[in-house]
TrEMBL record:
GO terms for biological process: regulation of DNA-templated transcription. CDD domains: LuxR_C_like. The keyword Calcium does not apply. This is HTH luxR-type domain-containing protein. Residues 474-539 form the HTH luxR-type domain. InterPro entries: Sig_transdc_resp-reg_C-effctor, Tscrpt_reg_LuxR_C, WH-like_DNA-bd_sf.
Length: 540
C-alpha cells in the first residue's frame, strides 16, 4: 500500500524528468490499462449515442433535442455549484445518473411506439429529453472524474482516443437506416453506462497504478462556509474555463445551424468532412502522446483561432458557391477546441480532484448552453427570412473582431495563470512519484528509484501550492502519526468503511477504530469530518 505521508517528496530525477517533458512512474499495469480502455470505450459509446440525436434520420423532434440541451446545461451548472469543492459519493452519483438515463430510455421507447406528430408523441419526446439532459450531465461528468484520476500523460491520450472512437461511431450512423439508428441510440447509452459502472467498481476494488488517484479520494471534503463567488475570486483557472467555452461554441452553433437549415452542406454533416474530422482527432491523439500531459492553455488558441478565423473569413464567399470548406474549418476548430479543453481540464483536476465537478460542470454546461442558444437563434432568424449573403458578411466581420478580442483576453488570462504557477504550485504534468522514505524536515534521505540510490528531498514551499495530499502528509508528520495510523487514515479519507479497511489491512474492525481514535486524539479533533476540515485548512 502506498503511504500518503510520502506524497510531497519529489526526487531530483523526477524533477528533471518533468522539466524535460517526461513523467516518471506513470506506466499502467494490466488491470489499470484495462480499466482505462473500458472507460475510453464506454465514453465513446455514450457520447456517440448523444451526438446521433442530431442526425435527421434519428427522427428526434427539435423540442426534445433543445429540451435535452438546455436541461443538460442547467444540470451541469447545478453539479458545478453543488459539488464545487468536494467529491460526492461516486456510487450514489452514478446511481442518480443511471436512473435518469433509464427513465429517458423508457420514455424514448414509449414515444417510439406512438405515431409521429401526435400530442402524446411530442409530450413523451420532451419528457424523454428532460430525463436525458440530467442523465447525460451526470454520466459525462463522472467520465470526466474517471479520466482525471489518471496521470496527465495518460488522460492526454485517453481522451482524444475516446473522441476518435466517438467520431467514427457517429460517422457510421450517417449511412444507417432510421430503424437501425433508433435501435442503436439506446443501446449505445446503455452500454456506455454499464461500462462506466464496471470501471467505477474496478477502480474501487483493484490496486492503483503509480500516480493514479482513487475515485473516492477526498470524499465529503467541503470547506465550511465556502461560497461559489469566493472560490471564483480566488481560483486562477475558473476564468479560463468560462472564457474558453463561450465564443467558439457560439460561432460553431450559428454556422452549423445556418448550414443545415439552408442545405449548403457546409462541412458539418457530409461524409467527406466527417473523414476530415476523424483525421483531425487522430492528429490530436499523436499530439497527446508527444506532449505527454504538458499541454497548456496557450496551445488551445494556437490551433483553434486560425481554424475559426479562416473559416469565418471564407464563409461569405463559399456561402455563394455552396462549397463546404468554410464550415469544414469551423467544425475542425470546434473539435480541436473541445478535445483539448477536456485534456486541459483533466490536467487541472488531477492537481486537486475536489474541483473536478466544478471545472467540468462549468465547461460542459457553458458549451451546451452557448451552442444550443446559437442554434435556436439561427433557426428563428431563418424562419423570419433574415439570413442572406449580406447578413453572413456582417456575421463574418463580427466573428473575426470577437476572435481577435477574445485571443487577447485569453492570452492575458493564461499568462496570469502561468505567473501564478511560477510563484507557487507544482505542474499538473509532473505528478509526484511514490517514494518511500521520510518526508519531513526539509533534509535529504536515500531512496531507490529505477534501481539507483538517489537523494530524496521535499519540494520547497515557495515553489508549489499545497493541495490536499500535501496537507495530509504535513499533518501526519507534524502530529507524529505512525505508519499504520497513516494507512488507516488514508483509507478512511478515501471513503472506505472500517470493515473494508480491516479486510484490506488484515486487522479487525475494532483495531481500525482504535487507530482512528488515536489519530483524532493526536490531532485534537472530535471525528472524521472535523479532521478532514482541519487538514483542508492546514497551511503547514
Amino acid at each position: 500500500m502506498k503511504s500518503m505521508a510520502n506524497i510531497p517528496a519529489m526526487t531530483e530525477a523526477a524533477e528533471e524528468a518533468a522539466a524535460s517533458g517526461t513523467t516518471a512512474g506513470t506506466r499502467l499495469d494490466r488491470d489499470s490499462l484495462l480499466t482505462a480502455g473500458m472507460a475510453v470505450m464506454g465514453f465513446a459509446l455514450f457520447l456517440s449515442a448523444v451526438w446521433t440525436a442530431r442526425n435527421e434520420a434519428a427522427l428526434v423532434p427539435d423540442g426534445a433535442l433543445y429540451t435535452a440541451r438546455f436541461v443538460k446545461a442547467v444540470a451541469c451548472f447545478a453539479i458545478a455549484f453543488t459539488l464545487r469543492s468536494h467529491i460526492p459519493s461516486v456510487g450514489k452519483f452514478f446511481a442518480l445518473g443511471a436512473g435518469f438515463v433509464g427513465m429517458h430510455l423508457v420514455a424514448y421507447g414509449l414515444g417510439a411506439l406512438m405515431p409521429a406528430g401526435v400530442a402524446e408523441y411530442l409530450a413523451a419526446s420532451v419528457i424523454s429529453g428532460a430525463f436525458s439532459g440530467i442523465g447525460e450531465a451526470c454520466v459525462i461528468v463522472l467520465f470526466a472524474h474517471l479520466f482525471s484520476t489518471y496521470a496527465p500523460r495518460v488522460s492526454a491520450v485517453a481522451i482524444p482516443v475516446a473522441y476518435l472512437l466517438n467520431e467514427a461511431l457517429y460517422f457510421s450512423t450517417l449511412y444507417l437506416p432510421t430503424e437501425a439508428i433508433m435501435a442503436l441510440r439506446p443501446a449505445g447509452k446503455l452500454l456506455g453506462v454499464v461500462l462506466l459502472g464496471l470501471c467505477l467498481r474496478r477502480k474501487e476494488r483493484l490496486p492503483l497504478a503509480d500516480n493514479e488517484y482513487p475515485l473516492q479520494y477526498g470524499i465529503s471534503i467541503k470547506s465550511a462556509g465556502e461560497r461559489a463567488i469566493t472560490l471564483f475570486a480566488t481560483h486562477r483557472s475558473w476564468a479560463l474555463i468560462i472564457a474558453g467555452s463561450t465564443l467558439f461554441p457560439l460561432i460553431f452553433g450559428f454556422v452549423a445551424q445556418a448550414c443545415s437549415r439552408l442545405s449548403t452542406n457546409s462541412g458539418l454533416y457530409d461524409g467527406f468532412n466527417e473523414i476530415v474530422a476523424l483525421g483531425t482527432i487522430a492528429l490530436l491523439v499523436f499530439y497527446g502522446v508527444w506532449r505527454a500531459g504538458r499541454l497548456t492553455f496557450d496551445e488551445l488558441l494556437y490551433f483553434s483561432v486560425p481554424l475559426f478565423a479562416t473559416g469565418c473569413l471564407l464563409l461569405p464567399a463559399f456561402w455563394l458557391a455552396d462549397a463546404p470548406y468554410a464550415g469544414m474549418l469551423v467544425k475542425c476548430g470546434y473539435t480541436v477546441n473541445q478535445v483539448l479543453f477536456w485534456v486541459l481540464l483533466a490536467q487541472e483536476s488531477y492537481r486537486d480532484l475536489r474541483h473536478t465537478y466544478l471545472f467540468f460542470g462549468l465547461f460542459y454546461g457553458i458549451y451546451e448552453l452557448t451552442t444550443a442558444a446559437a442554434r435556436l437563434t439561427t433557426s428563428a432568424l431563418y424562419a423570419e427570412g433574415g439570413i442572406d449573403f449580406t447578413f453572413m458578411v456582417y456575421v463574418a466581420l463580427v466573428a473575426l473582431w470577437l476572435i481577435a478580442c477574445y485571443g487577447v483576453l485569453f492570452f492575458a488570462l493564461a499568462k496570469r495563470v502561468a505567473r501564478g504557477r511560477q510563484g507557487g504550485g507544482r505542474s499538473a504534468d509532473a505528478p509526484v512519484p511514490d517514494v518511500e522514505g521520510p518526508a519531513g524536515g526539509g533534509g535529504a534521505s536515500e531512496a531507490a528509484v529505477g534501481g539507483e540510490e538517489v537523494p530524496v528531498r521535499l519540494v520547497p514551499e515557495a515553489r508549489r501550492t499545497l493541495v490536499f495530499p500535501d496537507k495530509l502528509a504535513l499533518v501526519c508528520e507534524r502530529y507524529g502519526l505512525t505508519p499504520r495510523e497513516v494507512e488507516v487514515l488514508t483509507e478512511t479519507i478515501h471513503g472506505y468503511s472500517m470493515e473494508n479497511i480491516g479486510k484490506k489491512l488484515f486487522v479487525s474492525r475494532e483495531t481500525v477504530k482504535t487507530h482512528l481514535r488515536r489519530v483524532y486524539a493526536k490531532v485534537g479533533v472530535g471525528g472524521k469530518q472535523e479532521l478532514i476540515a482541519f487538514i483542508d485548512r492546514y497551511e503547514g
